[in-house]
Amino acid sequence: MELINSRILLVIISISSLLFSSGQGSSAPIPQVDAALEKICAKTDNPVLCSSTILPFEHGAADPISALQIEIKACLNRMQQALAQFKKLGGLSASDMSTVQVCQEEYESAVDDLNGATDAIVAHDVGTIQTRLSGVITYLGTCDDAVAESPGFKLPFKDEDVVTLRKLASNCMAISTLLH
């Protein structure tokens, strides 16, 4: 009986290793990150998110400027999606509407700063880039504070979306430190 169990286990392991090694166990190949992008993303607190947002849009060897432009664009897209959700809200209490208004204004300011950081990249103004990106992080925190001070209020999007926004903003700031 023990011999049969061992053989069954061996067959299961063999089939599993064949599936995983031949790629049949996944729908798409795992993208390969080039060494330059890996080095850039290693400087962030969220290297997996960094690589996964930049890799699909990076053409050629990665450099901090192109990586930052792509990461800012990813952050900007998420921020605009969040803003669209705020604008759909209605029928809330006065207190909740006040929170929505604070968060909407903060997210609009964050969009302005992301656009300003993009303009500063073109101008090679590292100080302005970092100031603008720091502002984005601050605006997100201000909205978080407003939500925390409004018991029972829930943002109109998933908590994971807010976390991803914070991580993208943090990645942008970290990548900006690599600019010369």
Automatic annotation (TrEMBL):
Which N-terminal stretch is annotated as signal sequence? 1-25
- Name the SMART domains for this protein: PMEI (SM00856)
Keyword annotations of the record = Signal
- Classification via CDD domains: PMEI-like_2 (cd15800)
What GO MF annotations does this protein's record show? enzyme inhibitor activity
Among its keywords, does the record have Signal? yes
Ranges for domain Pectinesterase inhibitor: 32-175
Cross-referenced Gene3D superfamilies, in alphabetical order? Invertase/pectin methylesterase inhibitor family protein
Top-rank taxon of the source lineage equals Eukaryota
InterPro entries referenced in this protein's UniProt entry, alphabetically:
Invertase/methylesterase_inhib, Pectinesterase_inhib_dom, PME_Inhibitor
Regarding protein family, the annotation reads: Belongs to the PMEI family.
Q: What is this protein called?
A: Pectinesterase inhibitor domain-containing protein
